[in-house]
Amino acid sequence: MQKNDLSDCSFHATDINRRLCAREVPMKILVLGMPRTGTCSLMRALKYLGYYDAYHGYDAIFKNPRDCEMWYAALCAKYDGIGKVFGREEFDKLLGHCQAVFALPALCLAEDLVNAYPDAKVILTYRDVDEWHQSVKQTIVPLVTGRYQYLCQFMDNILLMRTRWIRPTFRKSWQILFKGNFDANARYSFEEHYKAMQSLVPSSRLLLYHVEEGWTPLCRFLGVPIPQVPMPRGNERKALREKFRRLMRHMFWEYLVKAAKLVTYTFLAFTLWNSLC
């Protein structure tokens, strides 16, 4: 297992409409720790232990961007009162192919997921709050607040790209999680989230887990044998930045291709119209 491998989050975008899907495998694990607390490492560990699929928030960015349509609808229903609040039926469609779910946007629907899957075990990944704060500022904050975001959203909308719901979904998740102001509310939101989860979930169902603890507490909690290999690591800062740079290059290429097709079709339609007039 290579330290900086992000192959679990490779960009192989599909266009699956999850509203037409159903539960295929049982939901077994809800990982409801804050982002940048080892969720990507844990995702790889659970896959190694045989939990498939382990759905990270990155799946909604890199693998099936159309998932964000449903995630955004779920957030609007819960926090804005628009549409039906998601329950077991809706989550089974969105996450029916998964045995575990991690990170944003699921984190903003933590209570609903805990109630929807009463037999699933809950893992709260955590780390020192100051280390966490610094890590988020150096990795996620630039992605959320980058100047190019507005240009990309504009292009997504006018070209009807399959990625057009990604930014609204994660921007809304970010605003919900940190009440619109990361700098002012991050540490408070971090602490309140862990208090709320520990209050909500019975101790028999809950593991408070630091990835540096390795396999032993994780495997004992899950009731599986302890692997004789090192605990996987994922989502190193440099690798994460490179992953998103590659994604941006891929998206700009898709913009060019789709714009070229639009111009070509428009020209052909205009030519045909003139020939008929």
UniProtKB/TrEMBL annotation:
Kinase found in the keyword field: no
Keyword set includes Transmembrane helix: yes
Protein name as it appears in the record: NAD dependent epimerase/dehydratase
Higher taxonomy: Eukaryota, Fungi, Dikarya, Ascomycota, Pezizomycotina
InterPro entries: P-loop_NTPase, Sulfotransfer_4
TM region positions: 255-273
Pfam families: Sulfotransfer_4
Entry keyword set: Membrane, Transmembrane, Transmembrane helix
Top-level lineage group: Eukaryota
